[in-house]
C-alpha cells in the first residue's frame, strides 16, 4: 500500500493538469505545513522566525513547470528578487533553485545565462546559491553546468543524491573543485538500472559519501531527518577531528522541528530548506511520496 501511495504521489507531482488545479485552490489541505507561502514576504517572515531560535535557511522559489523562455526569465527574476529581499531584510538565508525552472529543458544557454545573472547578484550581496539536483535525466547536464559555473563563481554549490549508482564516482570527480555539496538520499522515482531500489543500500551509500566528502576536507551539508544518519555524521566528525564549521545539518521546513532545535542546542549548524511560491504542487507531492504518513495530516486538514 505504501509503495502504491508513493508511486501515486510521484506521478501526480509530474502532472501538469494536477499542478494547474492545485494553483487554482491555493495552499490548502495541509500544504502550508511544508511551504512557507506564495509570496516573498511570507517566505522572509518564515525565515525570520527560524532565525530567532538560531536556525538559518535556504529559500527556494518553487517552479518546475516552465514551458517558455519568458517563463524561465521570470523565474530567474524571482530568484534575484529573493536575493534582494534576503539582503534588505537582514535574515540569514541562502538561495536554492532548480535549473529546469530557469529554462534547462528549453535552451541550455538560456539556463546558463540565467544562472550567471543570479550568481552575479548573489555575489553582490555576499550570498550563496545551491543548485538542487533533479531526476536522473538532468543529472549529468546539471553537473556539467556546475563545473562551467565554478570556473567563474565560488559562491555556488550543488546537490548529490545517494541513491544513484554513479554517486561515489561523482564525489571523487568533484573533489578537485573543492565543491560545497548538499548530500541527500534522493526523492525522485528512478529505474533500478540507475538507482539502488533498497533503502538499506541507499543508507549505506549515503554514509559512504558523507565520509568521503568530509574526509576530503570540503564543506558538507547533510540533508536528512534520519537520526541514524545524523548520529553517524556526529560520530564521524568526532572520531576524525572534523570541525563543526565544515558541515551543517539541513532539514525541510515543517518537518522534525524538535530535532532541528535540539541540534542547535548541541552546538551544530542547522539550515532549513524553505520553499515558497505558487508552483508548489510538485514539491508537495514529493514530500507525501517520501513519507506517506504525512497523508493523514493532509486528510485531517481537509475535514477541519
From TrEMBL:
Cited InterPro entries: FAD-linked_oxidoreductase-like (IPR029041), PRODH_bac_arc (IPR008219), Proline_DH_dom (IPR002872), Proline_oxidase (IPR015659)
Domain Proline dehydrogenase: 45-298
Keyword Oxidoreductase: yes
EC number annotated for this UniProt entry: 1.5.5.2
Cofactor(s) the record lists: FAD
Keyword rRNA processing in record: no
Pathway membership, UniProt: Amino-acid degradation; L-proline degradation into L-glutamate; L-glutamate from L-proline: step 1/2
Keywords: FAD, Flavoprotein, Nucleotide-binding, Oxidoreductase, Proline metabolism
Catalytically driven reaction(s): L-proline + a quinone = (S)-1-pyrroline-5-carboxylate + a quinol + H(+)
Pfam families per the UniProt record, alphabetical: Pro_dh
Protein name, as recorded: proline dehydrogenase
Organism: Cohnella silvisoli
Amino acid at each position: 500500500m505504501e509503495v502504491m501511495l508513493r508511486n501515486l504521489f510521484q506521478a501526480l507531482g509530474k502532472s501538469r493538469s494536477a499542478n494547474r488545479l492545485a494553483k487554482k485552490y491555493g495552499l490548502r489541505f495541509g500544504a502550508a505545513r511544508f511551504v512557507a507561502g506564495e509570496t516573498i514576504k511570507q517566505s522572509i517572515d518564515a525565515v525570520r522566525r527560524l532565525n530567532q531560535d538560531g536556525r538559518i535557511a535556504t529559500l527556494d522559489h518553487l517552479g518546475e513547470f516552465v514551458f517558455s523562455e519568458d517563463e524561465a526569465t521570470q523565474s530567474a527574476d524571482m530568484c534575484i528578487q529573493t536575493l534582494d529581499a534576503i539582503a534588505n531584510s537582514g535574515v540569514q538565508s541562502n538561495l536554492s533553485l532548480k535549473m529546469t525552472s530557469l529554462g534547462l529543458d528549453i535552451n541550455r544557454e538560456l539556463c546558463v545565462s540565467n544562472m550567471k545573472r543570479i550568481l552575479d547578484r548573489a555575489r553582490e550581496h555576499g550570498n550563496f546559491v545551491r543548485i538542487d539536483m533533479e531526476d536522473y535525466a538532468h543529472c549529468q547536464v546539471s553537473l556539467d553546468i556546475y563545473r562551467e559555473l565554478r570556473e567563474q563563481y565560488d559562491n555556488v554549490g550543488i546537490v548529490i543524491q545517494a541513491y544513484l549508482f554513479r554517486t561515489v564516482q561523482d564525489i571523487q570527480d568533484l573533489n578537485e573543485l573543492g565543491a560545497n555539496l548538499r548530500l541527500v538520499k534522493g526523492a525522485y522515482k528512478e529505474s533500478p538500472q540507475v538507482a539502488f531500489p533498497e533503502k538499506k543500500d541507499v543508507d549505506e551509500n549515503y554514509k559512504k559519501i558523507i565520509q568521503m566528502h568530509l574526509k576530503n576536507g570540503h564543506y558538507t551539508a547533510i540533508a536528512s531527518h534520519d537520526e541514524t544518519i545524523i548520529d553517524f555524521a556526529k560520530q564521524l566528525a568526532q572520531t576524525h577531528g572534523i570541525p563543526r564549521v565544515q558541515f551543517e545539518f539541513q532539514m525541510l521546513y515543517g518537518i522534525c522541528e524538535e530535532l532541528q532545535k535540539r541540534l542547535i542546542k548541541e552546538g551544530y549548524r542547522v539550515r532549513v530548506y524553505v520553499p515558497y511560491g505558487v508552483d508548489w504542487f510538485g514539491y508537495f507531492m514529493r514530500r507525501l511520496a517520501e513519507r506517506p504518513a504525512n497523508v493523514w495530516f493532509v486528510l485531517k486538514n481537509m475535514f477541519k
